[in-house]
Amino acid sequence: MSGSLAGTLRHDSTRARSGTSPGWLSRIRWGGLLVGAVWLALAAVTLHLPEDGDFPYTTDFAIGTALIGGLLAVALPLSASLGRFGGRLSDRGPWLAVLGLGLIVWELVTAKFALLPMPFFPPPQAIVEVFFEDWPKLGGSTVNSLVLLAGGYLIGAGIGFVLGIAIGWSRSVGYWAHPVLRLVGPLPATAWLPIAFFVFPSSWSASTFLVALATGFPVTVLTWSGVAGANKAYYDVARTLGASQTFLIRKVAIPAALPHVFVGLFMGLGGSFAVLVVAEMLGVKSGLGWYLQWAQGWAAYANMYAALIVMALMCSGLITVLFRLRDRLLAWQKGLVQW
Amino acid sequence: MVGVLARPHGPEAATATGARLTVVDVSHAFDLRGARLPVLEHVDLAVAPGEFVALLGPSGCGKSTLLRLIAGLEPPDSGTLTVDGSPIIGPDPSRLLVFQDPTLYPWRTVRGNVALGLEARGLLKAQGARIDEALRLVGLADFADAYPHQLSGGMAQRTAVARALVNEPRLLLLDEPLGKLDALTRLAMQGELVRLWQKKGFSALLVTHDVEEALVLAARVIVLSDRPSRIRAEIVNEAPYPRHRDDPNLVRLRREVLEILGHVA
């Protein structure tokens, strides 16, 4: 009988990937060389046009972009024979071309023709300079931010998860926790900042508390709604099959709530970034938020942009990690958003 | 949440001989915003060990409620329910329900769904081999690692049946299990249910509003009235299995049942 059933097993249609290039690069003859040429042009513009100002890293930046241009000009036409890496590279080809063009425009309107007012809009080589000259401080700030964020986020997510399940599961916990959650939860975590900084013994513990608060609220509410919204028949089935209360929570309530939990973790992560930066700007004496504030105080605008780039990479990277984790745990779900 | 009552499951509970079910003078009502809505009134019912009985009645007449009471998911307002002489005081893996909706756990594979009962009772290591046996029995051995969203309606319902059978229930409660399937799958699965019942020897209580299905599957068809449900008639069909729906005797019985239900053909 199973043979005849084979035809009825539905196959998932391949997921639509959001990052697929329209494919015009491969259709243009010498398209790969063109991308390389854009980066070589960037190197030429940087090196040969006279500069309005003093930028010690102009030559290094030009050499770097020329190297990138040369590599792209070689690798892109050969991408078909470079396996998975080649596929991803040619997929990114149009983006790399536009990125190179954008850098040329940036180079021209700042260092070369000074169309934008100088200290506020540094050229790309000034930002490269920051990465090379100030990396110990920038790197240290990133590590401090990550440690502070990780501590607060894990505490907040853990408490939120347990509290959400308790509220969803137990009527009496729900009775006492719901009004408190309703009144205090929607308050932005940053509103607690002045109180937190004098109640807690250190600015570090105060910031951890604030990050945990910002994370905990969405995780609690969404875990709770996940548990409460689970199909009641799931519990009936498990109970007739002999499940204990612990089994019902561990093997029915939690997996059923997990898709909601991840929405909460995602929202909490976004909220925790905001609180982290504000807390670091106002009280903590380290971290990327502090670095931004410090750079502004010294009118070191290139440092500010460098810190913003690092911050963007950090936040995006953390969300990528969260989505990867979700894809692993929720592989049974259909139609997940590809990050 | 109603507390789950722990009960010893000795070897005698695991053997697949049919249970004797006795329902005496059971009445039950729903609470609808304070008002009591009676759904069952003075229902008496007996299922002999290994017997296949069908409950037939208009939709919303309380058939499913009766099955929930027998499964032990809710206590009745009044009356007594016993299995082999001992009162039903909670859910038990020897009395299993298969719903109209397969209610598979979407995060578990077919094998994981079938394993749930053994896992919940800590028998997975000792009796895990039964899972493959149950999957073979319903023809899903090749789909053990598929997720529910990859299954057709018939395969999902087969999985739900396997999830019940792996626990060797002594009484199988079927709440319109074929109600959502297409006509052809439905016919195939009626045949399969009879085959499984004959092979395993459990007692079966089927709720349906399909007259033909009741007559093809059950040895005894109990016709219920509109809400609140009372027993209106009882039709015994002694024809041997497998039965054919165009058998003149079955056609005559069908006409008889439809007349009782007030739909003269």
Describe this structure in words.
The complex is a heterodimer of chains A (339) and B (265). Chain A is mainly alpha-helical and 339 residues long. Chain A has 2 domains: 2-117, no CATH class; 135-333, MetI-like fold (Orthogonal Bundle), CATH 1.10.3720.10. Chain A is built from 14 helices and no strands. Chain B folds into 2 domains: 1-94 and 171-265, Rossmann fold, CATH 3.40.50.300; 106-168, no CATH class. In chain B, a hairpin with a 6-residue loop joins β9 (220-224) and β10. Chain B is 33% helix and 24% strand. In chain B, the strands form 2 sheets. A 6-stranded mixed sheet of chain B has the order 6-7-8-3-9-10, with helices on both faces. Chain B has helices at residues 11-14, 63-71, 110-120, 124-127, 129-137, 153-165, 183-200, 211-217, 248-260, and strands at 21-32, 35-47, 52-56, 78-83, 86-87, 95-98, 171-175, 203-208, 220-224, 231-236. By secondary structure, chain B is an alpha/beta fold. The interface between A and B is large, with 35 and 43 residues.
Number of helices of chain B: 9
By CATH's scheme, which homologous superfamily of the largest domain in chain A applies?
MetI-like
User: What is the straight-line distance between the termini of chain A?
Assistant: 41 Å
Structure class of chain B: alpha/beta
Architecture per CATH nomenclature, i.e. the level-2 architecture of the largest domain in chain B = 3-Layer(aba) Sandwich
Biggest interface, chains and residues, is: A-B, 35 and 43 residues
- Helical stretch count of chain A? 14
Number of strands of chain B: 10
Say what oligomer this is: heterodimer
What is the CATH class name of the largest domain in chain B?
Answer: Alpha Beta
**Strand numbers in spatial order across the main sheet of chain B:** 6-7-8-3-9-10
How would you name the CATH homologous superfamily of the largest domain in chain B?
Answer: P-loop containing nucleotide triphosphate hydrolases
Low-confidence stretches of chain B are 1-16
Whole-number total of structural domains of chain B: 2
The largest pleated sheet of chain A is described as: none
The Cα radius of gyration of chain A reads 26 Å
Averaged pLDDT of chain B: 83
Specify the biggest β-sheet of chain B: 6 strands, mixed
Supply the number of structural domains of chain A.
2
